[in-house]
Amino acid sequence: MFFLVCGNECINANAKYCGECIQAGAKCGWCKDPDFLKQGETVSTRCDELQSLIKRGCSDAMIENPHGEQKTLKNKTVTNRRKGAEKLRPEDITQIQPQKLSLTLRSGEPQTFNLKFKRAEDYPIDLYYLMDLSYSMKDDLENVKNLGTSLMLEMSKITSDFRIGFGSFVEKTVMPYISTTPAKLLNPCTGDQNCTSPFSYKNVLKLTSNGKNFNTLVGQQQISGNLDSPEGGFDAIMQVAVCGDHIGWRNVTRLLVFSTDAGFHFAGDGKLGGIVLPNDGKCHLENNVYTMSHYYDYPSIAHLVQKLSDNNIQTIFAVTEEFQPVYQELKNLIPKSAVGTLSANSSNVINLIIDAYNSLSSEVILENSKLPEGVTLAYTSRCKNGVVSEGESGRKCSNISIGDEVMFSISVTSKGCPKQGKPEIIKIKPLGFTEEVEITLNFICECECNKDGIKNSQLCHFGNGTYECGACKCNEGRVGRQCECSSNDVATEDMDRTCRKDNGTDICSNNGDCVCGTCECKKRDNPEERYSGQYCECDNFNCDRSGNKLCGGHGRCECRVCICDPMWTGSACDCSLDNSTCMASNKQICNGRGTCECGTCKCTDPKFQGPTCETCPTCPGVCTEHKECVQCRAFGTGEKKDTCERDCSYFNLIKVKDRDKLPQPNDASYPVMHCKERDANDCWFYYTYAVNNNTEKEVHVVDTLDCPAGPDIIPIVAGVVAGIVLIGLALLLIWKLLMIIHDRREFAKFEKEKMNAKWDTGENPIYKSAVTTVVNPKYEGK
C-alpha cells in the first residue's frame, strides 16, 4: 500500500506539545495518557488522527480533541415594512440578519452560519448629482436645471424619504490642463462666451429634500472650460466619497450620478503638471471647494473602488454614447456601478437614474473586510427560484425585488493560530448598504489540559519542564522525554554508546536518533508504519506477507513477527485452522478424497480436483454435462443459447484454431478430458475440459465446426442422366440381342421342320393354278 508524505497532517506536524497538535488540522488529536508511548517512540507520536490513536490503545477519554463553536450576539429580525406605513428612522430599518456573531475556530474546522438579506420597502435614498461643467456640457446643464423637482416627483414613487444634492467639476487648475494666462483664468472660453473661472471640484448643494432649492442653485451655475479632453472627475468623486459631513450623506442608500461627455484622468497623469504626490484619499474641502488639486495627483481606480466601497456609495455613470465603451470597462472594475446614455432631454436623465437604481438595487453582493492571516471565507448563495451558487458567484444574488429574502451560507475556516492568538474582528456587508455583520473570531490555540499543566514538575527531571497533557514540555536548554539532558550534552560519545545494540556500530539500528542516551525512533511516511524498541530494532511492517498483505491480513506485526488472529497460524498468518472451507456438499471433509491443510483441500485421489475434491474432469459424462454450455458460449447455438450468460459462466472459455492446439494430457500438470460432440446440424465440435491448479474450470474449444461436405449437384445430375442413357442403351442392346437369338431359333426350327416334311416336292394334285390362258383366234402368231 502506497501513502503520500502529505497524507497525514498530524504526523507531518511533528508536534512537541498538545497546542501544536490541534493546530495541525481538524482530524488531529493528542493522547494525554502518560503510559501511551512505547519504548523508542517520540513525544510527537502522541499526535495522530483519532482512529489511529484509538487503534493504538488510547481511550476516548484520554484524547484531547477540542471543537469550535458559534454564538449569535445580536439577531434582530429583518424589517417587514411597506410604503405608507409609519415612518422609521434609517437606523431602525434592518435588512440583514444576524448583526453580530462570535465564532470560536479550531484550525481546519469550518464554522458555518446563515446570513439573511431582505430589501426593505420605502428605504431612504440620498442622491448626489456630480456634473462636468466643461464647455461641451453646456446643453446638458440646461437640462439639469429643472431636474430637482422632476426627480423628486419620480423618486417619490420609490421612497417617501429622498434627498438630492449637486456638485460640479472641471479640471486641475494647473498647466497643461487649463490655460494659466490671467485672461483665461477669468474666462476660459473663447469669443463672446461668458464662462466662470476653472476649478477642480465644487460642492454646490448639500443633500436636501427641497427640490426647488436644487433647481435654483443649479440654475445659477455657469459653464467653464479647460484645454484637454479628459476631465478631472476622479478628484471630484474622491471628495464626494470621503467628505461625508460636507455632502450630508446619511446611513441609507447612497447614489452618486456622475455626468460627463469626456474621458478621465487617473493616477500618474498628474506628472504632466508636475504633481507627483499620490492622492491621500482625505477630504480637502474649504468653503465647499477642493483646494488641493494642484498638490495631489489624481486617484487610481483601485483607490476609488476602496473609498466608494468603504462609504457604501453606488455610482451611476451618465455619459454620452461616444464614451459608453470606456465607462463600461470602468463599470466592470467598480462593484455596484451602472452606466447609462446621456442625451439632451431632462426626462431621459430621470429615466436613466431610475433604471440604473433599479438595476443596482436588484443585485446584492457581499464583501468582507480584511481577513486575519490564515483565515478564509467560503460563500454559498441561495437566491430566488432555488438558484444555488458557490465560489465567487456565491457572494451575490441578482433579480431581487423589494420584499424578497435571499440566504447566504458563509463558512469561516482558520489554518493555525494568529501570532498573538488574540480575538479578531471581521465584517461582512452587502455592497452599497450601510448595514453589516460583525464577527468576532476567537481561536483555539491550546488544549484544555494545558490549563492543568504543572510548571517545574518533578516528573520532568527535577523541575526542568512543565508537565502538561501527559508529557513534559521542557524548559529552554533541556531535551529528552523527561527533560533529563542539557542540549549541550546531547551528542556525546558516552550517550551514543547506550544507543548501540550489543555494542554494535549502528546507532539506534540506523532507524532513529540518540537523544540524551535514549533512542528516539524515526517516523515513516506511512503513518501506520512505526519503528519501536529500545534500539529502534523493531518495526510493524517487515513481517512475512501473504497475498501481498502483511501477515496475510489475519494478524498484526510486532517486532517483525506476525501475531496471528484466532483460528490462523503460520509465519504469515496465512494458514486457516477453520475446516469449514474444506467441507464438501456431502458433509465430508474434502469429499473423503483428500486432506484439509490450512483451510484448503489437498486431494489424494488424482482423478478428483476442486476446492473440496468434488470435481472429476475425466469421469464419464463430463463431456455430455458441459456440451450445451460449450456450444452456446463458443458458437451461440444449442438449447441454452437464450440463457447462456446466466447458466454457463462457471468456466473460462479459451478458443484455439485447430485440434492440434488443444491441451494434451501429457502437457498439463492436471487432468484434461478430451470431448467430441455433434450438434443439431450433424457438425462435430471438439473441446477439452479441465480444472487447473487454481481450481478454475477451463474449457479449450476449437473455434470452427467440423461439418460433412454437401453434395455436388452437377456431377450427380450428369451421372443420373448418363446412367439413364446408358441403361436405356443397354436395354436396347439386350432387347436386340434377345430378338436376334429368338429369330435364329425360329429359323433353325423352320429349317428343321422343312427337312422333316412327308409330301413330295412336285405338283400338288389339289393345286389349281390361278392363271387362265385364253388364245385369240385371230392371232396369227406374229
Automatic annotation (TrEMBL):
**Cysteines paired by S-S bonds:** 18-28, 21-58, 31-47, 189-195, 243-283, 417-675, 445-449, 460-472, 469-508, 474-483, 485-499, 514-519, 516-551, 521-536, 538-543, 557-562, 559-590, 564-573, 575-582, 596-601, 598-644, 603-613, 616-619, 623-632, 629-707, 648-683
Q: Boundaries of each Integrin beta subunit tail domain copy?
A: 623-712
Pfam families reported in the protein's UniProt record: EGF_2, EGF_integrin, I-EGF_1, Integrin_b_cyt, Integrin_B_tail, Integrin_beta
Membrane topology term reads:
Single-pass type I membrane protein
What span is annotated as the signal peptide, if there is one?
A: none
The record places domain Integrin beta subunit VWA at 18-447
- Entry keyword Signal: yes
Cell location: Cell membrane; Cell projection, Invadopodium membrane; Cell projection, Lamellipodium; Cell projection, Ruffle membrane
Residues in Integrin beta subunit cytoplasmic domain copies = 736-782
Name the GO terms of the biological process aspect: cell adhesion mediated by integrin; cell migration; cell-cell adhesion; integrin-mediated signaling pathway; muscle organ development
Keyword Glycoprotein among UniProt keywords: yes
Q: What family does the entry list?
A: Belongs to the integrin beta chain family.
Q: What is this protein called?
A: Integrin beta
- Could you tell me the gene encoding this protein? LOC116064866
